[in-house]
Known about the structure:
Blueprint: H1 2-24, E1 42-48, H2 56-71, E2 76-82, H3 89-98, E3 103-105, H4 128-136, H5 139-149, E4 153-168, H6 179-182, E5 185-188, H7 191-200, E6 203-206, H8 212-218, E7 223-225, H9 229-232, E8 241-257, H10 258-262, H11 266-300, E9 304-307, H12 310-331, H13 335-344
Parallel strand pairs: 1-2, 1-3, 5-6, 5-7, 8-9
Antiparallel strand pairs: 3-8, 4-7, 4-8
Amino acid sequence: MHRRLVLALTLVVVLVAGLVAAxxxxxxxxxxxxxxxxxxxxxxxxxxxxxxxxxxTYRIAERIRTTVWKNSEGRIEIKHYPGDLLGDWLVQIQQVxxxxxxxxxxxxxxxxxxxxxxxxxPFAVYNWEGARAAYETGAAVDLNKKICERNNTHFLGVHPGxxxxxxxxxxxxxxPGDPSITKLKTRVNTKLTEKTAQAIGFRTISMPFSxxxxxxxxxxxxxxxxxxxxxxxxxxxxxxxxYDIPFAFNPSPWVMNMDFWNNLSAEDQDIIQTAVSEVLAxxxxxxxxxxxxxxxxxxxxxxxxxxxxxxxxxxxxxKCRADVWPWAEENLLSAEAMEMVRGFAQPLP
Length: 349
């Protein structure tokens, strides 16, 4: 009995000693902390006026941002501020000129520079082939560069907003001066658009884009000049007709503050320019493809899309060129801009 007790006590002592030794053992070393992500060497503030991810300009901005980040291996970071987070588009373009915002996209508006409305010289081009030849890589590129330089911005390239069309609450015959047109009131957004609508025969009224829907619903206006097919989707409940009157395209320049651009290294300039050029080239392809889908979506929502015959296109284009181009050269666009427009203008059908 005594021997069993001694053995039991010995086992207890051994177990206790083991537990004490285990508790005294050093804890395993913690896993090493991940290496900190290096801060970007260059930060670019980009503002653009489209607020929603599904909108065209928003998507382009995001593609530029991610492409620059990837190609610079994280050295260059673009901080994207969509919609009106840094002010509306008028504020954005002014602040890029001044340098408080580094980069933006500029709607073709005389607010930036009167010559930037050259693309609204009606029917200079009237299909995607003509638009791409003129605006993406053609004659308009040099003019855009000059316009940007005199506004303290560097021109990076243009993307197409899409063709401008006419949406209407009422049906009409698309021929200049037709009685079905002369009684209609249409909203316009620029002076050139106003002159274009008047040349065709419309009565015109200027108003902000935000008021178009309610004005169509209330009958204050009958139609609106200038929406793209994407924007036409907003008005399907008040504008059952979309007239494919391609009086203008909307090539919008992407620009960077000139002082900011000049302070970048040649390597960083090349990374940014290469990324923007790649993204914008794809954007033209996408815009052409998406127009077909947008038309299908409009039709599915009950909108009748009315295409012009070659005879109607010629009649409207001849009238607009004869009436609006001389006015534009005298009152808005420089002789240089109008000379360029006449140079790339498509032959009429």
